[in-house]
Amino acid sequence: MKLLEPKTLKGLAEFLNCEFSGDPAHLITGLNEIHRVVPGDLVFVDHPKYYDKALSSDATTILIDKKVECPEGKGLLISDHPFDDFNRLTQHFRPIRFSSHSVGEGTEIADSAQIYPNVTIGNDVRIGENVVIYPGVVIMDRTIIEENVVIGANSVIGHNAFYYKKKETGYDRLHTCGNVHLKKNVELGAMCTIDAGVTDTTIIGEGSKLDNQVQVGHDTIIGKNCLLAANVGIAGCTELKDNVTMWGQVGCASNVVIGENAVVLAQSGISKSLGPNKTYFGSPAKDIRLMYREMAAIRKLPEILENM
């Protein structure tokens, strides 16, 4: 999430009523969670396991719950509750905007777009030429839809990211301030759900096709010409390179990369990154040649045991 104008380290410390370390005039140009940070961004960290990752990341400002040495060229905000204070910042700079109309404020829709009845479109949405949106679709704020995109009935584009912190009082959700970008020639089946990036953008690449009831988690990037069959579920912060195929009911864990031209067969479970140009099967998903050898060996086990 980019700020409309840069903020100083001292200014944000005063807003949050917390201490800071670094140049008071140090500038913050955006707010992002750790997987999508770029120089100028502020990131939060509230667990010792991830201190080094946050401090050495591309983020140039770190909201942290411990006094540590400030890396050169960076700034620190020291907070007792970084998660809560990060939420305060995102809610302040990008608050929820309620809309009681079928089309929100600041939305631009191309004249050639075909939008069926009972479609709800949020604020600041961009809809390109020759887009077709079927009945019951919900398109949340800041979604970008390029030309020739088709969205099947009752799909939801840009709903809140599934990102929670467990506390003694229950689960607190990280405020969603990102969006979704559907690139040209994308087709979504009925009842697909594409979650918004929690602070950045969930991307469906040019020419990719998603069958009915496909779920794509926050901040995931799907490449060009990918094919996802019905009931595929992809967790947040995952990347599919170009031309990936996932057949029905494949489940994919978060923060993994699926290589170019990979094919994952039906009902497989992906728990770690998969290389390019191979076919995978099973749970956890493995190279299909290895899986076939394992399955053949298992079939021989009764005979082996009888002969022991």
UniProtKB/TrEMBL annotation:
UDP-3-O-[3-hydroxymyristoyl] glucosamine N-acyltransferase non-repeat region domain sequence ranges: 27-92
Molecular-function GO terms, alphabetical: N-acyltransferase activity
Keyword line: Acyltransferase, Lipid A biosynthesis, Lipid biosynthesis, Lipid metabolism, Repeat, Transferase
Gene Ontology annotations for the cellular component aspect, listed alphabetically: membrane
Disulfide bond as UniProt keyword: no
Annotated PROSITE patterns: HEXAPEP_TRANSFERASES
GO biological process, one term: lipid A biosynthetic process
PANTHER family the UniProt entry points to: UDP-3-O-ACYLGLUCOSAMINE N-ACYLTRANSFERASE (PTHR43378), UDP-3-O-ACYLGLUCOSAMINE N-ACYLTRANSFERASE 1, MITOCHONDRIAL-RELATED (PTHR43378:SF2)
Name used for this protein in its record: UDP-3-O-(3-hydroxymyristoyl)glucosamine N-acyltransferase
Organism: Brumimicrobium oceani
